[in-house]
Design brief:
The structure is a single chain. Helices cover 22% and strands 30% of the residues. By secondary structure, it is α/β, with parallel strands linked by helices. It folds into 3 domains: 2-109 and 243-308, 3-Layer(bba) Sandwich (FAD/NAD(P)-binding domain); 113-236, FAD/NAD(P)-binding domain (3-Layer(bba) Sandwich), CATH 3.50.50; 330-407, FAD/NAD-linked reductase, C-terminal dimerisation domain (Enolase-like, domain 1, 2-Layer Sandwich), CATH 3.30.390. Strands 1, 2, 3, 4, 5, 6 and 18 form a 7-stranded mixed beta sheet that branches. The chain has a 5-stranded parallel beta sheet with strand order 8-15-9-10-11. Strand 9, helix 6 (154-165) and strand 10 form a beta-alpha-beta unit. The radius of gyration is 23 Å and the shape is globular. The chain binds flavin-adenine dinucleotide. Flavin-adenine dinucleotide binds at residues 9-15, 34-37, 44-45, 47-48, 79-81, 107-110, 128-129, 155, 243, 246, 275-276, 292-295, 297, 321, 323.
Length: 409
């Protein structure tokens, strides 16, 4: 049985950063990354640009196998963890191998949520979370004319833009009314909707798949309302499933992700979790959070790595997500979930395709959604980070002439 001082499950941004951070701080201890992937770290953020054609394949990859050898980090690719024994400190692989560890990091991220569909031809159904899924979709896109995307999240919008650049006639089907989940308000939604429609994308609300049919030789999506949408490509962009299955019966506490404290430590001694998989205690927002973004995966990988070598670092960061889609800058910051204590304040001129929605709790800013207004983003992040009491500014926040930055000057 191979023994490692530091063992890391997942070779994405969080796992790779943790391994490299450990190596910078412990030159001797053995480090290994286990990854299901065929490849070392690549950028998921550029996959939409790779699909659209503006980023070549070689620019997607961020590390080579040699770079790990040089750092004396073992990289076990195509290796699938099926079980963990936290008390015996062992990890079990699908091929029957067992590895033992002193410290373990779970950085297993997420995979495309799959949906069982009665399908005439499964080879025309696509997902978009990994490089292999992106490459398969790209190969098909280059010989296709029409696509249906199911789902209306960031991923769906980015795929639609890539299709549009490649002259693919595209329809987006939404389960409800809203794009980007429930966080962006009606006005923000309207700006995005109008913009993508102007770019030739068709948008259909309140549609759900019933089945896939054949019409002549073509695939057709049949919705619950019996509407028919012909396609060459069907992309299921219906969210991300956290990779937790191998933790069943391990005793490691999980909810939607792996539950950790602010040091990214799980309920089990010497076991940490970072990146998309980590449901960590956020000391700024004072609640448990699950994130899905590149910068946080990087910063959490760093924090976990430091804690694994024996330092004591809390993860403290106002997370954000930002994409430019069909020329519109769409972003969110912090906590944009709503509960009975959430107060919403809006800013911006929707005619100019600008909109900010501020999320306040107890008169403190906790999050924001923004359309084309990200020049205020830095100030908003500071307000969230510093938990500044905004009571005296409440009646001004919605006034577009009020300079938010004046609050902290
Ligand atoms: C198409 C796309 C576009 C995106 N665009 C943006 C963007 O613009 N901005 C942004 O901030 N974020 C973006 N994201 C999100 C961002 O990429 C993720 O938040 C980030 O990659 C998470 O990193 P991670 O290391 O936590 O997880 P992942 O990247 O999911 O890595 C998880 C790793 O764990 C491995 N693994 C899982 N289970 C096992 C197992 N049982 N055994 C062994 N290995 C396992 C996987 O093989 C993989 O190597 C995008 C994501 C996608 C898919």
């Amino acid at each position: 049985m191979e023994k490692y001082k530091y063992l890391i499950i997942g070779g994405g941004m969080a796992g790779t950063t943790a391994a490299e951070t450990i190596r910078e701080n412990d030159k001797e201890g053995s480090v290994a990354i286990i990854s299901q992937e065929k490849y070392p770290l690549y950028s998921k953020v550029v996959l939409p640009m790779y699909l659209g054609g503006s980023v070549p394949e070689e620019k997607v990859f961020l590390r080579s196998e040699i770079s790990f050898k040089e750092k004396n980090i073992s990289l076990l690719l195509r290796a699938n963890v099926v079980k963990i024994d936290p008390d015996d400190k062992k990890v079990f692989l699908e091929n029957g191998d067992e590895l033992s560890f002193e410290k373990l990091l779970i950085a297993s991220g997420g995979s495309s949520r799959k949906m069982e569909v009665e399908a005439a031809d499964r080879s025309n159904i696509f997902y978009f979370q990994s490089f292999d899924e992106a490459r398969r979709l790209k190969e098909k896109m280059l010989i296709s004319k029409g696509a249906v995307i199911v789902g209306g999240g960031f991923n769906a919008l980015e795929i639609a833009e890539a299709f549009s650049k490649n002259s693919i006639k595209t329809s987006i089907l939404l389960r409800g009314e809203n794009l980007l989940g429930g966080s962006f308000d009606k006005e923000s939604n309207e700006i995005i909707r109008k913009n993508i429609k102007e770019k030739g994308i068709s948008l259909f609300s309140n549609e759900q798949i019933k089945k896939i049919d054949k019409e002549m030789k073509n695939d057709v999506l049949v919705s619950q309302k019996d509407n028919r949408y012909p396609f060459d490509i069907l992309v299921m962009s219906i969210g991300v499933k956290r990779n937790l299955d191998f933790l069943i019966d391990s005793g490691i506490k999980t909810e939607s992700g792996v539950v950790t404290d602010e040091f990214l430590k799980t309920n089990k001694e010497d076991i940490f979790a970072a990146g998309d998989i980590s449901e960590f205690y956020d000391i700024i927002l004072d609640k448990r959070m699950l994130l899905r973004n590149w910068t946080s995966a990087f910063l959490q990988g760093k924090t976990a790595g430091l804690n694994m070598v024996g330092k004591k670092e809390a993860f403290r960061h106002v997370s954000g997500y930002n994409v430019v889609n069909f020329g519109i800058n769409i972003s969110f910051l912090g906590d944009v979930s709503k509960d009975e204590n959430t107060v919403l304040v809006s800013r911006g001129d929707t005619e100019k395709k600008e909109r900010t929605q501020l999320f306040l709790r107890n008169n403190i800013l906790v999050g924001a959604t923004q359309i084309n207004m990200n020049k205020e983003k830095g100030v908003l992040a500071k307000l969230i980070e510093q938990k500044i009491d905004l009571t005296e500014f409440l009646d001004k926040l919605g006034d577009d002439d009020f300079e938010i930055k004046s609050i902290i000057n």
